[in-house]
């Protein structure tokens, strides 16, 4: 189990939520490497599959996933874990977000970073803001990384009321995401993952706004 530790600007309940989704994602996707990136504050759904800007002004959402073009100044920290035997050990890896021209990021393909990786971006400053965001990318040798027929990225956002409620989703259905909030048993993994991948070609096209939180 990987634990994300909150700092003074993080809402503890939000970090607990993100940690739960992270660890259930590990159970489902079975990556060999994990990259966790904390962004300074909330980010919108437009970041999903955003690759950068051509000529510095024309935004592009690449058909082949790249590292999202966050300005490195927005990155609070990056953490890397590698699977060793049955455990994940924290280690060193090249930074995902470095200073470069936005156009240079258009070919910064995620599958070149890791062929079997789970990539997690989540928002900070949740003690002050009443909203938070989470974005997950997944690479796997068994998935076609060029075709988006079985796309492997998704985004969710939350709003804080009495507690944190689901607000927007893209690339994943509400029912599928609910599996990431529970306790996933081994015999559920294949069924949930199969359903998740089968629905991606439909779910990727829409942003769903949830009127009632989970």
If you had to describe this structure to a student in words, what would you say it looks like?
By secondary structure, this protein is of the alpha+beta class. It has one domain (12-209). 21% of the residues lie in helices and 30% in strands. The protein has 5 helices and 10 strands, in the order αβββββαββββαααβ. An 8-stranded mixed beta sheet has the order 5-4-1-6-7-8-9-10. A hairpin with a 3-residue loop joins β8 (153-160) and β9 (164-170). It is globular and about 45 Å long. The two termini are 24 Å apart. The relative contact order is 0.19. Mean pLDDT is 82; it is low at 147-151 and 201-206.
| Strand line-up across the major sheet | 5-4-1-6-7-8-9-10
* Rg (CA only): 16 Å
pLDDT under 50 segments (min length 5)?
147-151, 201-206
The domain tally reads 1
Tell me the distance between the termini. 24 Å
Report the total helices.
Answer: 5
Number of strands: 10
Strand proportion, as a percent range, falls in: 25-35%
Shape summary = globular
Keywords:
single chain; 214 residues; two-stranded antiparallel sheet
Describe the structure concisely.
This protein has 214 residues and is of the alpha+beta class. The chain has helices at residues 12-29, 110-113, 174-179, 186-198, 200-203, and strands spanning 33-39, 50-54, 58-61, 75-84, 87-91, 117-123, 131-139, 153-160, 164-170, 207-209.
